Amino acid sequence: MSDRVVTIHAFCSVKGGVGKSTLAVACAKLLAESGRKPVLIDADLTGTSLADGLRLCAPELATRQDGGADLEAPTGRRLSRAETVAARRARADTPWTEIPPPPPFLNDILIHGHELALYDEDLERECTVEPLLWRHEKDDGVAYLPSSPLRADVEIALGWLYRARQFTWIRRMTWLLEGMREQMSDLTDVVIDLPPGMFGFSHEVLALMAPSGEVTLLHLAFHRDMKAGPPGPAYSWLELPIHRKRLPAIRALCRRLVERYVGGSDGIPFGVRYAGARFALSDGHFLPHDGHGLTCATFVLAVFASHGFPLLKIEEWPEREDDREWHAHVLNMLHDHCATQEEIRAVKDERGCARFRPQEVAAAGAVDELPLRFEEARRIGELLVEALLTRHAQRQ
User: Fold this and answer.
1) By three-state DSSP, how is residue 349 classified?
2) All structural domains of the chain
């Protein structure tokens, strides 16, 4: 993860006509005048466009055989103001069924983003956002990504913003922000003009562009005791085989869990049985699914399962000889931890369930394909424990 900070400035309101766009433009221009490198995203997809009010010049794109804009083929040339106006008129007058003709708008990236591999299953391909950005006729130091005011684009956008597909819009904006942060090494600020009354654009998404560069350890320490903070020198970790473009949404869920459970009066109870528990992506609410709570290991399984990434083939895990001894030890710890009698009884009733050991969950970070089968997880987990013990002995 990069240690540089990209700041987001979001302008939003419950109603339109209050000056959001004006303030967003002023903010971006002031940032540029102070020597920073801002991008202004016109995310108010409800029928207006910054390209209508500012003298913006669009990038030139090649066209596909059907006349649509080839979003992967910017020529590197910027259209003049007159050429941009002519291209916009041609786009409005040209009937299209798939991808509209140039110039490119934010709508094209969000709606037809598979051409940029933003949302395609082939995640090894890279999207290229910077060549699609517009500039002011007098180049004020701001890069612009305006929205399209065409009726066909607006109708699709309204369905995203205010009807049944809000999270489609949020997911695609998330990948766009992440792509800009990774590709534009000189980017310092993103100014976003949001739609009025817009639903669901959580502050976690706004925070995706401003990573601190520090590693934070999030873990379920024990019964109703979730902790988050920098890991000590004794900790080690492995990278899971999940493409980096999937990581922003996982980070957002972890932030929700921190806000909901760390340092609060409530928490996630300890529980042995794990049958696919997960968290609600919208607010981090725990969804136990035929279980009572989580262990430190199954907490990790639940986080990734919430995003459709099963780390282990959980149906293969058997009960083992020393699981009952561990279970008895856990019950004693719950007594000492002042768990309620009901909570202790719930864990006691889970006796005989398979135990997912921490090293077996960690083994998922040492392979290329998931989910991991039991025998392989057990074997790799034993090797990880051996390696950690060796390293600990060397430090003594």
Assistant:
1) coil
2) 7-209 (3.40.50), 217-395 (no CATH)
Going by their DSSP bridges, the two strands 7-11 and 59-63 should be labelled as: unpaired
How many Å from the N-terminal Cα to the C-terminal Cα in the chain? 31
pTM above 0.85, yes or no: no
Distances (CA, A) of 18 to 13, 146, 195, 260, 301: 8, 19, 11, 33, 45
DSSP-assigned letter for residue 294: B
Contacts of 21 (CB under 8 A, 6+ apart): 11, 42, 44, 48, 50, 53, 193
pLDDT in tens, the chain (396 residues): 445 678 889 888 877 788 899 999 999 999 999 999 999 999 888 878 999 999 999 999 888 887 888 777 788 899 999 999 999 998 888 877 667 889 999 988 877 654 444 434 444 444 578 888 999 999 999 999 999 998 888 887 777 666 545 556 666 777 788 778 878 889 999 999 988 765 445 444 444 444 445 678 899 999 999 998 888 777 777 777 777 667 777 887 888 898 899 987 679 999 999 999 999 987 889 999 887 899 999 999 999 999 888 999 999 999 998 899 999 999 999 998 888 999 999 999 998 899 999 999 999 988 888 899 999 999 999 998 888 888 777 776
- Which residues partner with 39 through β-bridges? 143, 190
Residue 307 burial by Cβ neighbours in a 10 Å radius (0-12, 13-18, 19+): middle
Q: Which two tokens stand for residue 189?
A: 């600020």
